[in-house]
Amino acid sequence: MRTTSLRRLAARIDAATPPERDRAIDALRAFAILGVVLGHWLVTALVVDSGSIHVVSPLQHLPAFTPVSWAFQTLAVFFLVGGQVATKSYDSAKARGDGYLTWLWARLFRLFRPVLAVLAVWTVTASALLLAGVSFGTVESLVKLVLSPMWFLLVFAALTAATPLVRKVHPLWPLAVVLHVDLIRFAFHAGPSWLGWLNLPAGWLVPYCLGALWAREGLRGRTTGWVLLVGGVAATALLITQAGYPASMVGVPGAKISNLNPPTLAAATFGLAQCGLALLLLGPLRRTLRRPAAWAAVALVNLSAMTIFLWHQTSMIAVTALGLLAGHPLLGLHTTPDTTSWILARLCWLPVFATMLTLCWATFRHHEQGGGRRRQRTIRVAGSPGSERLQPVASTVS
């Protein structure tokens, strides 16, 4: 009976989708969000030591685990899709006669509305923990863990706001900025300390501008995808093996250089490789997403993309806290991530994290999706911040 209901829901979502919609773009966005979630769950450990909790990365102790950061550091794909969608959306808004502020508000409103719920919950939680006598260091570590991933939302919002200015900028220009900043920082060991932060907008402008170029049909054929993939992999390998860049594509506590904080040339070239792979996957994804069940899964993830992103760290923290009720540290949850056994145990904890995230989603999804339960539901098939097209569907799913 339940299988029949799911098939009917999938069929309704499929029927509600405009035929001209490129479903592969939504799939890339969904993969990017889920990649970040799984990456954080795998490379972040909350270690309980002497009654306090501090954050440790398994990459500090297990460098052989580094390839995980290559597979799950997927933000470049998110910015690629963001640039493509924002550029098309802005051009459509101009054609309709909509003003810039109207367009920008529509795109940013759904991006930031669910953030308020997270801030409210953690303001209360942090205050309660401090009043209960939990050490300031523990509370600081937990709050930082929850809030630090939100930096990318601010960068994404800034690039979205700048779309009218940057949509015709070739991605080689911001790539050149990243190159020159890194030369000054690492090759010549010169420049002020803040210079590296110029790479924060410039580094993510590379895939964003690539997406804008894609929207203007400037990326045609599979050759472009192969050039980006092979060239990006080769450049990243050279930077790591010959120029001293770290192999990890996420920050590692205690490391002298981080590829993400701020973005380095290695992060930019790695992102180009990811964008190339994304372009090569468009054809297979389009064929796969003709199936209603596959498309429904992608559409529903996009519908709650920000809720999933914003609450995934809270879900891991909640499971870790509940695990303390066992009375002793649990492997893969509270222990130092320095053995293969920890990795195997952490993989077993992932379904528990996902279950807790599902509970958070059920509690807070309305902050992203809006509205209450109505007879006639409206499903936002696009699932992206500020997407304009809504399709009415007779459904009990919100």
Summarize this entry quickly.
This protein is mostly helical and 398 residues long. The protein has 18 helices and 4 strands. The chain has one domain.
What's the quaternary structure here? single chain
Cα shape: globular
* Widest β-sheet, arrangement of strands: 1-2
Tell me the Rg in angstroms. Answer: 22 Å
Class per helix and strand makeup: mainly alpha
Uncertain ranges = 372-398
Structural write-up:
By secondary structure, the chain is mostly helical. It has one domain (2-15, 23-393). Helices cover 67% and strands 4% of the residues. It has helices at 2-16, 23-43, 58-61, 67-72, 75-96, 100-131, 136-147, 151-161, 163-166, 172-187, 199-215, 221-242, 265-280, 282-288, 292-303, 305-323, 340-364, 366-369; strands at 45-49, 52-56, 377-379, 391-393. The strands form two sheets. A two-stranded antiparallel ribbon has the order 1-2.
Keywords:
398 residues; globular; two-stranded antiparallel ribbon; 18 helices; disordered C terminus
Provide the fold topology.
Blueprint: H1 2-16, H2 23-43, E1 45-49, E2 52-56, H3 58-61, H4 67-72, H5 75-96, H6 100-131, H7 136-147, H8 151-161, H9 163-166, H10 172-187, H11 199-215, H12 221-242, H13 265-280, H14 282-288, H15 292-303, H16 305-323, H17 340-364, H18 366-369, E3 377-379, E4 391-393
Antiparallel strand pairs: 1-2, 3-4
